[in-house]
Amino acid sequence: xxxxxxxxxxxxxxxxxxxxxxxxxxxxxxxxxxxxxxxxxxxxxxxxxxxxxxxxxxxxxxxxxxxxxxxxxxxxxxxxxxxxxxxxxxxxxxxxxxxxxxxxxxxxxxxxxxxxxxxxxxxxxxxxxxxxxxxxxxxxxxxxxxxxxxxxxxxxxxxxxxxxxxxxxxxxxxxxxxxxxxxxxxxxxxxxxxxxxxxxxxxxxxxxxxxxxxxxxxxxxxxxxxxxxxxxxxxxxxxxxxxxxxxxxxxxxxxxxxxxxxxxxxxxxxxxxxxxxxxxxxxxxxxxxxxxxxxxxxxxxxxxxxxxxxxxxxxxxxxxxxxxxxxxxxxxxxxxxxxxxxxxxxxxxxxxxxxxxxxxxxxxxxxxxxxxxxxxxxxxxxxxxxxxxxxxxxxxxxxxxxxxxxxxxxxxxxxxxxxxxxxxxxxxxxxxxxxxxxxxxxxxxxxxxxxxxxxxxxxxxxxxxxxxxxxxxxxxxxxxxxxxxxxxxxxxxxxxxxxxxxxxxxxxxxxxxxxxxxxxxxxxxxxxxxxxxxxxxxxxxxxxxxxxxxxxxxxxxxxxx
Length: 561
Known about the structure:
By secondary structure, the chain is mainly α. 83% of the residues lie in helices and 1% in strands.
């Protein structure tokens, strides 16, 4: 819609009001709410798809870590298999050594017991006996010393190996436990290797029990083993001393008897400890064999698990990529986009308004109508106080044009002053802004001259009745000038009068001078007003000429009977 306040101010106001009602009728709250829900639904679907895609991406990352863990598990179980094999072999050797230790310690104990019995039984005959058996005693003592050192070495190896084996078995079991709990007890996706993982976990638990039993046996016998090692060391030392002193036993019989008794006691303890040790190592050997077999099965299961996790990583990556692609194809409207699209669809009618030469307010819009009204009233009031024709000039026989100009010029001058005062008040007090201020003031001077000439003629020609005609002509001009509503909306009578009255041209010209626009109506109005001024002055001069001719009616009134 294009409006031009330079043509008519009220038309633009009416158009905008009417179009506002049209928009209100075309836009409803229900449709806006419905469409807003549609856009929100799109955003919800997009948001949920993005969440699913993010979850798939996180799943991919978790499965990737799981795949790395399964590979590490397979590698670790491979190393564990190698270690369990070594442990089993070492325990086999240790078991054989423990058997030998038990046999040797028993023989030593029997020998020392026999020796002690003999020594104690024949203490009275010991000297001759010792003299006869010094070499045999020395050799036997040396054998005891050597055997004690061997047994003590095997005991140290057993003490160090048992805790290491138990710790390795426990670490492998905990790793399998963690993998089984992560993959099978709280899974994101079903894990096909759960059955194998459960078997592997149970086998590892059994191995831990066996290794713990071995470690427990060793730990329970730790005090005895320490004592045994101490006794073995003492036995070796004493046997060695005995071997060293054998050539001199006859000289140390009393001391030897005492030492042999102590040696016998130590040998009995060593024999008892060696028997327990042999039994425990036998159990550990069986457990280590079972551990080796279980770790072998775990290794195979871990290899299968690693292959399955690799395929699962590829599948989760494909799922995450597909969800992200799908989320990218679903529209996502934020609140601003949603409001804009909903506003367009729920409020489809929009006013594209362009106002040429827009008047800023009602005062500016209606000034072209009320300014000529005030100037017309000013001329009308002025001729109520000033005679339209000077009586002395009429009586003196002055020329008709002189008489007309003499009655017109004072009122025109007053109109110029009225115009200056009016425009000063409108500009400085009311705030009227004119596009062409100088042109407006100059044109109003012409309007004042025209209105003064017309009012002068009506008063000069019709006398007191002319005042009523002046007021009637004002009413006709106000209704036919189109100063408020377009003249086309007025009845046909006023449409017919519109081109023939001066105020019609004044209103149109003032709109262009105050608000803006082309000057063709201004030049047209100037020509029309000039013609009206000249015509009114000519008619006033004609009336003055008639007033200078005296008739009988003017000299004496009619006689009435």
